[in-house]
Amino acid sequence: MSQKKKSNRNISLIVILIAIAGLVLYFSQKSGSETEAGTQSETIDIPFRKQGELFFTSPQNGDTLAMIDIEVADNDQLRARGLMYRRTLPENAGMLFIQSMEEMQSFWMKNTYIPLDILFVNRDKEIVTIHANTTPLKEWNYASTKPAIYVVEVNAGFSNRHGINIGDRIEFVIPK
């Protein structure tokens, strides 16, 4: 092979290597910025917005066990996000999920940074399942043991601190 052909071949290889290195650098920076954006959105704390009040009551005498301010998740978009990405939830606050029908329900803690108690409630507003002290950021399901149409999420330990048990009831007020 002539000296000129070897030189042209070496130049071609160098150009190809530079092009490959440029592409690798471009795509690694692009995916890195997407990861950064995802991380940034995960760290944004969505403020609590009171939309109503919810009361936990005893079925025996109707006494109020506790009251919380609630945000309401009553459509697919709000139910899908729930309390994900939040870093804080006021002590006497929670989220009320109003499902479209009473059936077995299942929630997970993906992208949820706050440990929660998850209470499943039937159409008679009776608590049928309580998952206390759920683990943040886990993708396993916390399911109801009976059909439910409402789900209430509160800070972990809330149910225990206020003596809320299966069989207790909820009542809520959502002003229009």
Automatic annotation (TrEMBL):
Q: Which InterPro entries match?
A: DUF192, Saro_0823-like_sf
**What's in the keyword line of the UniProt record?**
Membrane, Transmembrane, Transmembrane helix
Query: Can you name the source organism?
Result: Proteiniphilum saccharofermentans
| Keyword Disulfide bond found | no
Q: Which residues cross the membrane?
A: 12-28
Name-wise, this protein is Putative membrane protein
- Pfam families xref list: DUF192
Please give the superkingdom of this protein's source.
Answer: Bacteria
